[in-house]
TrEMBL record:
It is an enzyme of class 6 (ligase). SUPFAM superfamilies: Amidase signature (AS) enzymes. This is Glutamyl-tRNA(Gln) amidotransferase subunit A. The gene is gatA. HAMAP family: GatA. InterPro entries: Amidase, Amidase_CS, Amidase_dom, AS_sf, GatA. Residues 32-482 form the Amidase domain. It comes from Corynebacterium curieae. One of its GO terms (cellular component) is glutamyl-tRNA(Gln) amidotransferase complex. Its EC number is 6.3.5.7. The active site is at residues 88, 163, 187. GO terms for molecular function: ATP binding; glutaminyl-tRNA synthase (glutamine-hydrolyzing) activity. Heterotrimer of A, B and C subunits. Keywords: ATP-binding, Ligase, Nucleotide-binding, Protein biosynthesis.
Length: 495
């Protein structure tokens, strides 16, 4: 077992907010900060495999531009200007490959930037590189990557979570102070819980999906990742907001997440009502996880929160509904990867028909889990099964949304463990898809309802000495509630 947790000293141990303050006051330069993280990546990435591509030259050029502007007396482009970031390799970039961790897109460079990428550049945030993930964001352990799994810095024989394990591992190991992930069924929150970091799935439609390679369009959502709640809020503020290029983007003001994080840091939760979900108090979940969860609830109560148990009966059906809806959308979205227009083309020697080239390209380009989900979705959408499977799953989705609505009539936020266990060993669940799917039981319902959620570190499990996470959930467009409660909990734990 190898442990690569964040160094106790040096620039790479500082929070993003601390780094920004030092850069903007000219105590240090963005180039110095960016180089420190690039050095850390060079030191650790061979063992962690968290980055699939490192853009050192591009990152340093962006840092130099920030330094030049600040030296000229200009105001920082954002509260995080000059602080570098790790970008999940699912958001397209013009200056780096975007592979979605798939052989299908190996070497692909986009002709345009995703809106999130564009907003990061406009905010003066250097992009260190592109991070590892489960292929096309399908998986819970990062083991479905065509380029090998990322490794958990707390124990490199274990998963950092999925699909966004690369971003979480980069944060936890000091390779980056900030990260961008995407969350279709827990792919930001679940890796955050396993790596002692903070991850937020914003309300669906509040962060643009333009340039985010789609897996399941009604579920996918990009979001911020950090090592503290305030850092994550500062990044959230940069990437959120309406985008005319995204038909699902909502034209609403960005929730005051930074102000909420600063308010929450005072530690007072008086008047806040919190719901404990009856369905997430399960026998068989890891003892150390549940110990930390109950300790978190006790702490929140001591900080003034009123604790109420709520019943969400249809959450028990969320896994089944998700694994019908998600594969159906995958089947549709991934039909474009056919060996004809872009991506891998196999068997194109002039002796094969177009259909044969398509078949061979998809057979060679997609990994086993992607193929499994395409086949599940295609079957469920086929004549004779659409009503029995897909439409029924959508009805369950509505019932889950109604469960949330009733719960939020009683409470301001809901809390739960983020995951049923701590990080499992790489290879442990690969041959058992259902065991892998069950790992996301706590995170899936939120995506089906389009609401917002956060995972914040809740300590080390007593039985494994590995990180656990507390999940906080709030109604749509009330993302600031996450940050107030998350920051308060974080402040209470750090006393």
């Amino acid at each position: 077992m190898s442990n690569l947790t964040v160094p106790a000293e040096g620039l790479t141990s500082l929070t993003a907010a601390e780094l920004a303050e030092k850069i903007h006051s000219r105590e240090i330069t963005s180039r110095e900060v960016t180089q420190a993280f690039l050095d850390r990546i060079a030191e650790t990435n061979e063992e962690l495999n968290s980055f699939l591509h490192v853009g050192a030259e591009e990152a340093l050029a962006a840092a130099d531009a920030v330094d030049k502007a600040l030296d000229a007396g200009e105001e920082p482009a954002s509260g995080l200007a000059g602080v570098p970031l790790a970008l999940k390799d699912l958001l397209v970039t013009t200056d780096a490959p975007t592979t979605a961790a798939s052989k299908m897109l190996e070497g692909y460079v986009s002709p345009y930037d995703a809106t999130v990428t564009k907003r990061l550049r406009e905010a003066g945030i250097p992009i260190l590189g592109k991070t590892n993930l489960d292929e096309f964001a399908m998986g819970s352990s990062n083991e479905n990557s065509a380029f090998g799994p990322a490794h958990n810095p707390y124990d490199t024989e274990r998963t950092p979570g999925g699909s966004g394990g690369g971003t979480a591992a980069a944060l936890a190991s000091g390779q980056a102070p900030l990260g961008i992930g995407t969350d279709t069924g827990g792919s930001i929150r679940q890796p955050a819980a396993l790596t002692n970091t903070v991850g937020v799935k914003p309300t669906y439609g509040t962060v643009s999906r333009y340039g985010l390679i789609a897996a399941a369009s009604s579920l996918d959502q990009a979001g911020p990742c950090g090592r503290t709640v305030l850092d994550t809020a500062l990044l959230h503020e940069v990437i959120a907001g309406h985008d005319a290029f995204d038909a699902t983007s909502v034209d609403k003001p960005v929730a005051p997440v930074v102000a909420a994080a600063r308010e929450g840091a005072q530690g007072d939760l008086s008047g806040v009502k919190m719901g404990l979900i009856k369905q997430f108090e399960r026998d068989g979940w890891q003892e150390g996880v549940m110990e930390n969860y109950h300790a978190a609830v006790d702490q929140l109560r001591e900080q003034g929160a009123e604790i109420i148990e709520v019943d969400c009966p249809h959450f028990d059906d969320a896994l089944a509904a998700y694994y019908l809806i998600m594969p159906c959308e995958v089947s549709s979205n991934l039909a474009r990867f056919d060996g004809m227009r872009y991506g891998l083309r196999a068997g194109d020697d002039g002796s094969h028909s177009a259909e044969q080239v398509m078949s061979q390209s998809r057979a060679e380009g997609f990994g086993p889990e992607v193929k499994r989900r395409i086949m599940l979705g295609t079957y469920a959408l086929s004549v004779g099964y659409y009503d029995a499977y897909y439409l029924q799953a959508q009805r369950v989705r509505t019932l889950i949304a109604q469960d949330f609505a009733r719960a939020f009539e009683q409470v301001d936020v809901l809390v739960s463990p983020t995951t049923p266990t701590t990080a499992f060993k790489l290879g442990e669940k690969v041959e058992d898809p259902m065991a892998m799917y069950n790992f996301d039981l706590c995170t899936l319902p939120l995506n089906l309802a389009g609401l917002c959620g956060m995972s914040v570190p809740s300590g080390m499990a007593s039985d494994t000495n590995l990180p656990t996470g507390l999940q906080i959930m709030a109604p749509a467009f009330e993302d600031d509630r996450l940050y107030k409660v998350g920051a308060a909990y974080e402040a209470g734990r750090n006393k």
